[in-house]
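Ticket #4471: complex job returned nothing on first submit. Input attached below:
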Amino acid sequence: MNQGPIEIEMGPPISTVADWTELTCQRGSAATLTCDLIVTYPAPVTDDDPVFKALADRTRRFLLDRLLVDDGRTLTGLGSELEMTRFGVMKHLRVLESAGLVVSRRSGREKLHYLNPVPIRLIHDRWIDKYSERQVSALAKLKTELEETA
Amino acid sequence: MTTTSETKATTQVYRVYIKATPEAIWDAITKPEWTERYGYGSRSEFELRPGGAYRGITNEGMRLMGAPEVGVDGEVVEADPPRKLVQTFRMVMDPEMAAEGFTRLTYLIEEDKGGVTKLTVIHELEGAPRLAAVVGGAMEDQGAGGGWSWVLSGLKTVLETGKSMGVVGGNQG
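Support reply: We reran it on our side without changes. The output follows.
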């Protein structure tokens, strides 16, 4: 694995964005690809998109928060805490369901909604490996504690 | 806090989409050589018939920390490979959780589009608040693992990439 020190040739210091752009755009076609600031993904974008879209809405985050406290609820139960039509709540739940963040199950005549944290876990596991996890959770805990005592 | 007339649910539902066949997922749930590679890294032993025994054998790392050989026990209620597995489940590693008794666990495996399979886990946790906290991931900070969402994330990784994400009690590979 280790093949000795890697030598890096240092050019003149880069201090401004203009310097940086000039520098990277001079270098062949690969670098110039991104100089119009449009990022090209090397692989097709995975199915994280619906999750981020679903989370990018305050009402939907509120619904998830409600389910976190009190899981397995009906549309009526969830809607009772929102100033919104039944149809509106239903629409939001549908977005959450298609993103996989909510799973519904029939129980007798009722349709119960459950929070499914797995898609969020997958995003977590993708960017936070098991080595940095401890530090991240320690920081998250510190933030919670500080905010609770503030 | 909310005041609601609805009773607080004691069931937890998890779902994950995995690029694998239903058979591969069935094996990953029921075969010890697979179950030791993700989640809690215990070897699951199933007698796949109604009334058959289920045992989750702890890994070496967990035993070094004082865990007994059998960490989880239960009984198979229904085995319909590769679509449905219903079992009872009791964590016996911890006396408090052991005292909570058996809970009911259902795995549903359904084929989706494009070689993707939908796995739904339904854990009925009535009368088992401590186990519910552990499988819900609330005790991850204390080294109890991240519960079902973490287990299923590991299961997805091992099936899709062949690599292990690491299990509780070390024993990575």
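The first helix of chain A runs from residue 17 to 26. Closing as resolved unless it happens again.
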